[in-house]
């Protein structure tokens, strides 16, 4: 409380985008901030920079106003600030009264580092220092593998077909295990684990009160696989279901000769694969619906990052995943007296912002400008500070 009052006063009484000054007053991460502060003032620019960035609001009021549950996925190239932006958004939602879950699907998790709290272990953990409920989860494949195993048991396809009364046809499928099918699938276990969690959030009453679910996603390639996974399984399951139908028809013809039609009708009941297919469709639909999902692309003002963001948006568009906002993070703020280095970087970033405006994929998105702060963003007060600059 005291901390946030001081933070508010600091934000109101200075136009400086200075996390250093805030961290100094609050006394958190002070050594870290000092190190970064010295580096910035020594190497980059002697003057404290001023917040004169062009307006680039996120229209946060739109994001917060809807009571219905919404998934926010933040993604982009490695190292651009996805975790910091996702964590700051989660804190902001929670501070505005939305019970929120923040999930990392990146195998190289950094939520714990970002919040400066231990959020590891693959289970939902409460984030300390936020008023409303905010839970965080770093998905760990190993833990998810165990969960999947405990849910499915050690069922082989043969056993499943036995239970459907089709054991005699299962020979061809041999000892193929459901788990092997999961492991053999082209998307990795990380993506499967993430989808399985999404399903839990959607289906389990335990999570129904959480109205905002923010994903800190893995760098681009992983994330695209994650989003295409429901389709991948949908088509795989369709193939298996077709095969099963053929086998059932063959069994039906075979059994009808012996007058066992009643038993065959029972086999028409929905089975595990049909249920899995339905659940995959559910996830697929949630990720494609503008009312339930928004993918926010995070980038930095370099040509390489912008090009990758443009490709990412093209892929998301193809997948029909809703995208409305683009965060350009780590923008060097204006300064009263530029050193040569800063002035060159600033020219370069102005050129890159121009590229965004002329990029057919990116120009239609709401551009959010996020300043380069003068310290590493770690801990809830720092995330609040960053969030107040991005999500406004
Ligand atoms: N606007 C900013 N100002 C200052 N530092 C920043 C800013 N955004 C991010 N950082 C710092 O950059 C580093 C990388 O940020 P972050 O972990 O959020 O990126 P990421 O895209 O999630 O990385 P990865 O792809 O490795 O998961 C962190 O040390 C973070 O504190």
TrEMBL record:
Coiled-coil ranges from the UniProt annotation: 266-293
ArsA/GET3 Anion-transporting ATPase-like domain residues: 70-390
Signal peptide: none
Gene Ontology terms, MF aspect: ATP binding; hydrolase activity
Keywords annotated in UniProt: ATP-binding, Coiled coil, Hydrolase, Nucleotide-binding, Transit peptide
Record-stated family: Belongs to the arsA ATPase family.
Name the UniProt record assigns to this protein: ATPase GET3C
Source organism (scientific name): Cardamine amara subsp. amara
């Amino acid at each position: 409380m005291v901390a946030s009052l001081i933070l508010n006063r600091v934000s109101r009484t200075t136009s400086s985008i200075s996390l250093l000054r805030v961290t100094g007053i609050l006394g958190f991460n002070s050594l870290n901030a000092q190190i970064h502060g010295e580096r910035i003032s020594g190497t980059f620019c002697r003057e404290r920079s001023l917040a004169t960035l062009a307006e680039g609001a996120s229209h946060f009021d739109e994001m917060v106003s809807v009571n219905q549950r919404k998934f926010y996925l933040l993604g982009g190239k490695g190292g651009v600030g996805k975790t910091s932006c996702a964590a700051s958004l989660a804190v902001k939602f929670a501070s505005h009264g939305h019970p929120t879950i923040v999930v990392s699907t990146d195998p190289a998790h950094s939520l714990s580092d970002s919040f400066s709290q231990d959020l590891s272990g693959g289970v939902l953990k409460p984030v300390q220092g936020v008023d409303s409920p905010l839970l965080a989860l770093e998905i760990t494949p190993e833990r998810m593998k165990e969960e999947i195993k405990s849910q499915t048991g050690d069922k082989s396809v043969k056993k499943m077909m036995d239970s459907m009364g089709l054991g005699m046809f299962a020979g061809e499928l041999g000892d193929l295990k459901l788990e092997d099918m999961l492991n053999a699938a082209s998307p990795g276990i990380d993506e499967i684990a993430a989808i399985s969690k999404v399903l839990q959030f959607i289906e389990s009453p335990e999570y129904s009160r959480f109205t905002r679910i923010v994903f800190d996603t893995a760098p681009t390639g992983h994330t695209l696989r994650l989003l295409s996974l429901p389709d991948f399984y949908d088509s795989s399951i369709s193939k298996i279901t077709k095969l099963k139908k053929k086998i059932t028809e063959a069994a039906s013809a075979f059994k009808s000769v012996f007058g066992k039609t009643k038993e065959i009708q029972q086999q028409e009941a929905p089975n595990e694969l049909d249920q899995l297919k339905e659940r995959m469709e559910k996830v697929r639909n949630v990720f494609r619906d503008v009312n339930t999902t928004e993918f926010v692309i995070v980038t930095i003002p370099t040509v390489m990052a912008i090009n990758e963001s443009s490709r990412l948006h093209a892929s998301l568009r193809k997948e029909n995943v809703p995208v409305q906002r683009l965060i350009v993070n780590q923008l060097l703020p204006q300064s009263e007296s530029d050193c040569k280095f800063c002035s060159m970087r600033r020219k370069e970033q102005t050129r890159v912002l121009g590229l965004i405006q002329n990029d057919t994929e990116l120009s239609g998105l709401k551009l959010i400008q996020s300043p380069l702060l003068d310290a590493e963003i770690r801990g809830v007060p720092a995330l609040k500070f960053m969030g107040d600059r991005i999500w406004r």
